[in-house]
Amino acid sequence: MLSDVTWHALSPADASFFTTAPIVHSYPVDLPVSPERVWQQISSDESLSAWGLGVRLRWTSPVRDIGATREVVLPLRTMSLRERFFRWDEGEGYSFFVEEANRPLFTRFAEDYVIEKIATGARFTWTIAFEPHPRLLRLFKLTDPINKIGFSLTPRAGKRYFAKHP
Length: 166
What we know:
This protein has about 170 residues and is α+β, with helices and mostly antiparallel strands. It has helices spanning about 15-20, 35-40, 135-150, 155-165, and strands at about 10, 25-30, 55-60, 70-75, 80-90, 95-100, 105-120, 120-130.
């Protein structure tokens, strides 16, 4: 899928990074479907690519568990990533960090997906945490309000997806 890409290595992250990273955003969204349905979708071959965001992904490991890997291409090929999963709680969520990216924007980058049962269905919480490359930290801090709005498109797309695909 991504054979023509020059890769830049990022440092690994773990669960503590979601509280210690220079930039962290968390987006909880209540969905009108069961937690099992959310899990089935986010752990599928399509995962977030089905949400209409223009994301393409390909799982690159035979099992989906801790250590699983996948490649992701963001919309308009703006960025390509190689991810490694460090948390896999069947039916409840997962976390991964980016091992490599085609652009040297970040030192570390990680995402966390949590699914909780609520009275009306499921609460899906998507958290992203990143450490920009030191020379870009000031720029990322300045543009953070805009980036935060941009990132919020993902949970809103999830809400639309599950409204159409219960």
